[in-house]
Design a protein that fits this description.
Mean pLDDT: 85
Low-confidence stretches: 1-13
Structural class: alpha+beta
Number of strands: 20
Largest sheet: 6 strands, mixed
CATH architecture of the largest domain: 2-Layer Sandwich
Strand order of the largest sheet: 12-11-15-16-18-17
Strand content: 15-25%
Number of domains: 3
Helix content: 25-40%
């Protein structure tokens, strides 16, 4: 192995901490225990002990040092978190790699804290959030259940080979063990070799044979409602899209791009495509619907409805776990982690937890209103509207006492669509970065600003 580890999250790059990866340069039992619990309660993930950001090994001279820390951390988890640990030698020093899978149980630390993975952080849940997560787990892990009547032969070889080709390119290595061992480890085959719900949805050529209405229904209406009138027919196009989920995403997005394309203009020597809605925003909403819908609800498919003034993408099932309309931008929770993992490894999900941020950013850049999110117990809907918008007036600041710096940044946002921390620092060069961070956090808390992105990509817009 080279002196810089290759990433498990993206082929050909060095690992950095994220939703599925945690890098621990030092072996700290408390931090390791928190990460074990957070991964087990979320989508699972890979822990590197003895590796810094970018894949630079810090390593240990003696493996016994790590063994003791791992044992201490495992004793802090309630119930124990099962991790598959391996060790390797990099530049003469030991690096430990632990693989944690999503657990059927809800785990806590010995001090009572329940944590989940949110980007690069292990975030504790509130009491109400714990109840919501526990309730969602009590319904059973549907995607991990075996599909009655299905056999390994129902996996399509062409689909599976397509996936493995992409997986090996992203991992920058060949799969050296039997394919079925890999499918079992990822939860796409049961231990007895029977396809699971996740496996059928990902690799069966006709998953609707076993799981009715698991695809997408796309309807284009000619007016602004679904009603048929003498002047307006009910709809102009209706398509049922079925097949393995990756193909459903691709085919649906291709159809949408046909409908949303408005032509092109040439600016200088560059051709610029014109769209009713930004295709990347629409694609993210579609991927989220496919990845996070409740597949237990077999009575209806994902619905994509195109109207004259808006586009609606609605998926069966309400918001999962502790996700609410208020925290949907900041939090991440997967109802179907095995499906999400498959789409992620297939390249259909670029970065977990960033889909909503990307939708918002694309709509802002295109001059459209922010996407609207609505939810009830039966469905979740994303609505894109086509009208162009002006910068909103600041009518929600009447009850907020702002300092001079905050007034300055809001005035800046009246002329610009976003502000980054470095922009704020240029506006207030004599103020510490921590003070400016607290200013922005205060405006977010009062509902004036909306925080988009994470780490160096973070910026703020008017809410």
């Amino acid at each position: 192995m080279s002196e810089k580890l290759r990433a498990t999250s993206r082929g050909g790059t060095r690992p950095n901490s994220g939703q599925l990866v945690a890098l621990l340069p030092e072996a700290d039992a408390d931090e390791l225990a928190e990460t074990l619990v957070a991964f087990a309660n979320s989508d699972g993930g890979t822990i590197y002990i003895g590796v810094a950001e970018g894949g630079v090994p810090t390593g240990y001279d003696f493996a016994e040092e790590i063994n003791a820390v791992v044992e201490q951390s495992e004793l802090r988890c309630r119930p124990p978190v099962l991790a598959n640990w391996t060790q390797t030698e990099v530049a003469g020093r030991f690096v430990f790699v632990g693989h944690v899978t999503r657990s059927h149980e809800l785990h806590s630390l010995d001090d009572g804290r329940v944590l989940v993975r949110a980007g690069v952080e292990n975030r504790p849940l509130s009491g109400q959030q714990i109840l919501q997560v526990a309730s969602s787990r009590s319904t059973g892990d549907y995607e991990a259940q075996s599909v009655p009547g299905a056999t390994r032969a129902d996996f399509d070889d062409d689909v599976l080979n397509e996936f493995l080709k992409v997986w090996q390119e992203r991992q920058a290595r060949q799969l050296t063990r039997p394919v079925d061992d890999h499918l079992t480890e990822k939860g796409w085959l049961s231990p007895n070799g029977q396809p699971t719900v996740a496996g059928i949805l990902l690799f069966c050529k006709t998953p609707e044979t076993f799981l009715p209405r698991c695809g997408v229904t796309l309807v284009k209406f000619d007016g602004q409602t679904t009603r048929r009138t003498e002047e307006t027919p009910s709809y102009g196009r209706r398509v049922e899209i079925t097949g393995p989920l990756a193909h459903v995403i691709t085919r649906t997005h291709d159809i949408l791009k046909e409908e949303l394309h408005r032509g092109a203009v040439v600016r200088g020597l560059k051709r610029e495509e014109q769209w009713i809605y930004p295709p990347m925003a629409v694609r993210e909403a579609l991927v989220n619907a496919v990845a996070h819908r409740d597949y237990r609800l077999s009575g209806r498919a994902i619905e994509v409805k195109m109207y004259a003034d808006r586009l609606e993408i609605s998926s069966p099932g309400g918001l999962p776990g502790y996700i609410t309309l208020d925290n949907i931008v900041d939090e991440h929770y997967s109802r179907n982690p095995r499906i999400v993992n498959g789409l992620y490894q297939w390249g259909h999900i670029e970065e977990l937890g960033m889909g909503v941020d990307l939708m918002i950013e694309e709509m802002i850049n295109a001059g459209h209103p922010l996407p609207q999110f609505s939810a009830n117990e039966a469905s979740f809907t994303v609505t894109f509207r086509s009208e162009r918008v002006r910068m909103p007036r600041l009518d929600n600041t009447a009850n907020l006492t702002m300092n001079e710096r905050q007034t300055k940044v809001l005035n800046y946002l009246q002329q610009n669509d976003r502000v980054r921390s470095r922009d704020y620092q240029e506006l207030c060069p004599d103020v510490s970065p921590e003070t400016l961070r607290l200013d922005l956090a205060d405006l977010v808390e009062h509902g004036i600003l909306l925080k988009i992105g994470r780490k160096r990509g973070t910026y703020y817009i008017l809410k």
